[in-house]
Specification:
144 residues, two-stranded antiparallel ribbon
Length: 144
């Protein structure tokens, strides 16, 4: 008779332990999209910090980095102008490559996904680069 009383009590205890474990107040696990988006954003921040626009003495010292979007339909990349001869140029390029990889993996996983049968235009005008007073800058783009 004693074991009959113990069984319902132990089941109640295990149910309580399970409920407390489920409601431990921790944040839900990140989705794959959230993880990739966070990685892309961290790499984008690093690329922007490392992509300095000085020094330059000619336009050939200047370059463009493109940070890819993680959300949107037909979203355009963000342009970052930088000096290819700066001390941090290679690091900026590496961070941009890592950002592009994470963003390209995140984009199709975005909430709501990508709509089917959407055609986006293939290109966008590249603003011209210039070296002005030792700094790489972009000029205005003339649209047709």
């Amino acid at each position: 008779m004693h074991s009959r009383l113990l069984l319902p009590w132990s089941m109640a205890l295990w149910t309580l332990v399970a409920l407390l474990s489920a409601c431990n107040g921790s944040a839900p696990a990140s989705t794959e999209f959230e993880t990739l988006e966070a990685q892309a954003n961290a790499h984008a921040d690093a690329a922007r910090a490392l992509a300095v626009n000085m020094p330059c003495s000619e336009v050939g010292h200047c370059g463009r980095l493109y940070l890819q979007p993680t959300r949107g339909v037909c979203a355009l990349p963000t342009l970052v102008t930088y000096s290819r001869v700066s001390a941090t140029a290679r690091q900026a390029e590496a961070e941009t490559a890592a950002q592009n990889t994470a963003a390209s993996q995140a984009l199709p996983l975005q909430p709501g996904g990508l709509p089917p049968n959407v055609m986006c235009f293939a290109g966008f005008p590249d603003p011209p680069l210039a070296c002005e007073r030792g700094a790489c800058v972009t000029g205005a783009v003339a649209l047709p």
